[in-house]
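Hi L.,

You mentioned the student needs an example of a multi-chain input paired with its predicted structure. This one should do, with 420 residues in total across all chains.
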Amino acid sequence: MQGKNISQVVISRLPRYFRYLGDLKDEGMERISSGELSKRMNVTASQIRQDFNHFGGFGQQGYGYNVNYLYEEIGKILGLDKKHNLIIIGAGNLGQALANYMNFEKRGFFVKGIFDCKEEIIGQTVRGMKIMHTSKIADFIKENNIDIAVLTLPKQGATEIVKTLVECNICGIWNFAHVDLDVPDSIHVENVHLSDSLMKLSFKIHDDEE
Amino acid sequence: MQGKNISQVVISRLPRYFRYLGDLKDEGMERISSGELSKRMNVTASQIRQDFNHFGGFGQQGYGYNVNYLYEEIGKILGLDKKHNLIIIGAGNLGQALANYMNFEKRGFFVKGIFDCKEEIIGQTVRGMKIMHTSKIADFIKENNIDIAVLTLPKQGATEIVKTLVECNICGIWNFAHVDLDVPDSIHVENVHLSDSLMKLSFKIHDDEE
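Structure written out for the whole complex:
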């Protein structure tokens, strides 16, 4: 695997490269120099060259980068050439918003089921899927080859659910619950703590004012 | 201002400290040593001490930290003792989910208005607020003392809206649009690129597999 042993910092930049390259592709651009890409992305050209060197370069001196090739290769490194099956746990506003977000499918992420523990909403439909009870999660994961669970439930419920996910040996958890999860190293977690993000914005505003 | 010239890395850790201290407070804990906090948060005690020293320490050798005091002080540094008025631009699933998220109010973030450009949903109600047309944003910001705009609209619409926000001299933008914004330094931006986050999770899963 090309991406092995790359620093977290470099990896965290790959989705942004992928996003910009997708835009360039949509604009019909075929080649781009590190200098041009640098201007667009507001990072130094040398950082771009260094980052891409980690993955074998993708470029030819003086010719710039082939946009399509680079887009495809970074996509492969990110695992976007593969299909992922997701379940959403927590059918509140955020869970439903994510279930309805079509763009994830374009990248190979397919929502297969949505769960909640509130009896009164079980059976309601979200994007053609009936909301199921959380007690059905373990069976559903096994029967439907689910590799990613999206947690959009209050933190009180998260611990118990995570225990189930660990038992099912889920590959990844995309965690929106307001809590840090305690899972074995074999399970990958990506946190989106929305409140933390809003607090950071608040800090920046007030740090500037005073 | 105590927080001046603190590195971004330290600042980015403050919301997490704040979250853990809030939990401790809820559990009725009055004091905690850096060692105990370190175990709970899975960071080194020396990092905790160093981080808190940036803000004047808050602790007394041998006595541990006063949980309530620390919670309040970090809250102040984050600007959470102040009231913020928000508008949400983009009344799709995600915009509505954020509008309905009550916890933000607990921290002093009040959603005052919600906007969209789609004629067919103008006038519909979200959490007691009528969805307004985006053409009304500038007036609304001035009349309602809005300091933060939440962008939950497709990237195609974002550029035009951001121009308006810059003209209104908005303090901060919480950006969920799938695009990096080009704004003057006086306007603070905090990005939540959900797709980038999901791609990072995908990378971790596949990097591990191969």
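You could point out the following to them. Residues 4 and 55 of chain B are 9 Å apart (CA to CA). The domain at 84-196 of chain B is CATH 3.40.50.720 (Rossmann fold).

Best wishes,
N.
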